[in-house]
Structure formats: C-alpha cells, structure tokens
Amino acid sequence: MQKLAVTYPRMIHYRYLKEGRKLTRMAEPYSVGHRIRFYREHLGWSQTQLARKVALSQKQLSRIEQSQVMDLSRDLVILIGRALKQPVINGELNQWLYHFGYRGYVEPLLDLPDEYRLWLSRFDPFPAALLDIGWFLRDWNVTMARLFQVSQGALQGLERNLIVQLFAPDALLAEQWPKELLTRMLHRLIVQWQPYENEPWLNRLKNDICQRTKIPWETLINTYCQGLVGTIPSTSEVVVLRAHDDHRILRFRSNLVPIPNRPDLIITHYYPIDVVTEKWCWQDFSG
Predict the structure, then answer these.
(1) Most exposed of 52, 58, 186, 287 (fewest Cβ within 10 Å)?
(2) Is residue 164 part of a domain?
(3) Domain total in the chain
(4) Name one GO molecular function term (predicted).
C-alpha cells in the first residue's frame, strides 16, 4: 500500500539552561505529560479545568504533566485526548497510546484534520474517497463525485456508510457493483473489523446497518463470503464501472492508502488501467 506524507507533531522537546546571560537549548526526550500541558495551555485551561473534565484532581493532573506518573491506563489517556480534542484530530493521541504500549484509538466518525481535503486533492484527476473504520464515506474528490454522480450533500447520516450503499436495494449506489467485487470488499471489511469485535461501537453499527439494509449480518456474510472467513483479502482489485455521463466502460485498479497516526482513516483511490479511462479522468482537468 502507498503511504501518504503528513506532518507530525515534533517528537523532540527542549529545555533551556541559563549559563550566565546565555540560554542554551537542550533536547529532552518525548514526554506525554509535556504534550498534555502544551494542548491544555493552548486552550487557555487551568489544570483544575482539565482535571474536572477527566475526573482527576488538580494534583493528579499536575503529576501527569510533570511525567511523575509513568503508567497511565488506556482509558484515561483516551479521556484526556478527547477532552483536549486536537490530539484526536491530528493523531497524536495514538502516539501517546503507543508510547504506553497500547493499541490505537479507533472509532467511526471521529473529527477530521483540516488538511484532509488536501490529501484527496493529491489524487486528482483520479477518483479518491476518504473512508473511516466504520466504512463511512467521510469525503471524496470531484472525480469520484462525477464517477458516481453523487454530490457531497446527497448522503447524510447512515446513508454515508459504504456497506449501506452497497447492499441496501434503494441506496443511491445500489446495483452498480458485480457480486464478485461485493464479495471482495465485504471480505476485506470482515478482516478489518476483526480486532474490534468487542468494541461497543461495532455492535451498534452492525445493528444499524442490518436495520437499514433489512439483511441480517450473518446472512450477509454467508451469502457473499462463504468459505472466505479466515483467509487474507486482497488490498487491490480491478474495478469496472460504467460512466454515468457518457456510458463509457471505465476500468480502474483500486488501492488503499493509510493515513499515518490515524488508524481509523484510509483513502481508497482508483487508478485508470486503460487509455479510455485515463482520458475520462482528465476530461475536467485538461483545461
């Protein structure tokens, strides 16, 4: 899979030693506590204000910010990150979790960083869409919108979920996909969701999807993925679609691009594999 370059928060911090009239900058190791203090001060909050939001005393938070507490629970790290918001958005919360040896924080519909539209624009003029771990279509570029004739405002709420669009008979994107492609996509989803089987959000989402599609989850799996459970799915496949605007047959190869430090997000993009498809993609960009 391709990797997408994004800007990370710096992992080196500095302290200043006074030597006479001169200040000497000395590198310090990465400290989660220092980063928590940085985000708190950026918001203009006192230690007491943040402590109240995460059910700690001011003294406990002070010890955390001074790196005097070396073992924080995963739930507390997530609670602090969510209270500060920005560490969730830019992915630094996951750096904190990895620092303590925990898995990353993954849920559907988390807030997006400001640069996400820039990520998608880098794939122009070829179709690209941003998906989260719940397979919600968070955004897509103009070529993807043209390919499926679906504008940003056309999908709201659960209708933005790709599984709903693939399997609900009255969805906007229904009946556009061959069964073989549906099988491969659902197989990939099963494997992607496997580590989160005990997460409350996954059970809620499955129930919502089943109610919307009117297909029980087990029926969906048995219909499309019989015999595939436990096997490794492909991360790239050939996608053949008919263009809505001129009915040309378009052929792409799909690819997945992970977002560093945001394990809940992934970009899926379609790269043309013949001249006709490439010309179609460039149609709105050639001028």
Answers:
(1) 287
(2) yes
(3) 2
(4) DNA binding
Q: Where are the alpha helices (DSSP H) in the chain?
A: 32-43, 47-53, 58-65, 74-84, 86-90, 92-99, 116-121, 142-148, 162-167, 179-193, 200-213, 217-224, 275-282
Preceding omega of 125 cis (within 30 degrees of 0): yes
| The pair of three-digit structure tokens given for residue 19, joined into one six-digit string | 């030597």
Token duo for residue 1:
């899979």
- Paired with 267 in beta bridges are 130, 257
Q: Do residue 67 and residue 150 come from a single domain?
A: no
The answer to whether residues 127 and 269 touch, using CB atoms and an 8 Å cutoff, is: yes
Question: Distance (Å, rounded) from C-alpha 71 to C-alpha 82?
Answer: 19
164 and 80 within one domain:
no
Q: How deeply is 239 buried, as exposed, middle or buried, from its count of CB atoms within 10 A (0-12, 13-18, 19+)?
A: buried
